Amino acid sequence: MERLVLTGTKKMTIEDHEQPTPKADEILVNTKFAGICGTDHALYNGLPGSANAVPPIVLGHENSGIVAGVGSAVEGFKVGDRVTVDPNIYCGKCFYCRTARPELCDHLSAVGVTRDGGLEEYFTAPSEVVYHLPETVSLKAGATIEPLSCAVHGVQLLNLTPYQKALVIGDGFMGQLFVQALQAYGIHQVDLAGIIDTKLKFNQEHFGVTNIFNTTRDEIPSDYDVVIEAVGLPQTQEAAVEATRKGAQVLMFGVGKPDQHFQMNTYEVYQKQLTIQGSFINPNAFEDSIALLASGKVDVEPLISHELNLAQVADVLEDKVPNISKAVVKID
């Protein structure tokens, strides 16, 4: 079988390899689509993702496919089933797992990060992280359930109620997912700030965004109850805090560099009684995410701008492919 292997920092090669054999508790997945995201950019450049990736490793933690084999102890799956895979695997034994915070697991492992992922024709995953994909959800959309589940987890960390006004800062794929996720969870007004007019207008016209702001020229009002920061730069993190009114919640979702800092007026945090919340990966959010896609409350396919093959992945990770909203790799 063919697979794309990360062999070192900014080094990838396509190799032929034997098809893996699933262990007793594992499922063998014939990959159909694998998404490319910011974590893959980080790993390609030698930075950590949800965990450290040690080359040689096959990336690809956003996957959909067809069950090609099941281990002897697996129940509930059969060859031919359409599936998607939650890449994150928790130990179940550490302090955080035993206190209902598995996303903070001390021994976190992940498909496409610490073990081979979906940028190959076949990969294995523990059956506990494999989910059936409804017929109403395409395999292409199925490869976006992992990033959607990260947005859903972030939304679930907040105390939301319909009267609130929300602002999403960031018009990338994750920011656009947050727009729909907030709406699905009942927020009556969701605004979007970013830097690309076409994306901003698209979300206003197709997904009901109330107000759009181009941060290169527009001033953002300071009257939001909920602000999602989905960029990860100091200036946007500072802007997220500044956009709040009293009693607001700020979700810091965008991933900054490991040594990055931003400035914050601590008196304002005190005086406004702000809640500033981090959000890491996606625990217990796959079922909700699948339901949002199956019900049509979230529509991801209009946000997928590029369908690639394995040979094109490195160019994307080198930022040589312009105007990407979301890229998926078709594994054929």
UniProtKB/TrEMBL annotation:
Keyword NAD belongs to the record? no
List each copy of the Enoyl reductase (ER) domain by range: 8-329
A Pfam family annotated for this chain is ADH_N
For molecular function, the Gene Ontology terms on record are: oxidoreductase activity; zinc ion binding
Q: Which key words tag this protein in UniProt?
A: Metal-binding, Oxidoreductase, Zinc
Q: What are the required cofactors?
A: Zn(2+)
InterPro entries in the record, alphabetically?
A: ADH-like_C (IPR013149), ADH-like_N (IPR013154), ADH_Zn_CS (IPR002328), ER (IPR020843), GroES-like_sf (IPR011032), NAD(P)-bd_dom_sf (IPR036291), Zn_alcohol_dh (IPR050129)
As for family, the record states: Belongs to the zinc-containing alcohol dehydrogenase family.
Protein name, as recorded: Alcohol dehydrogenase
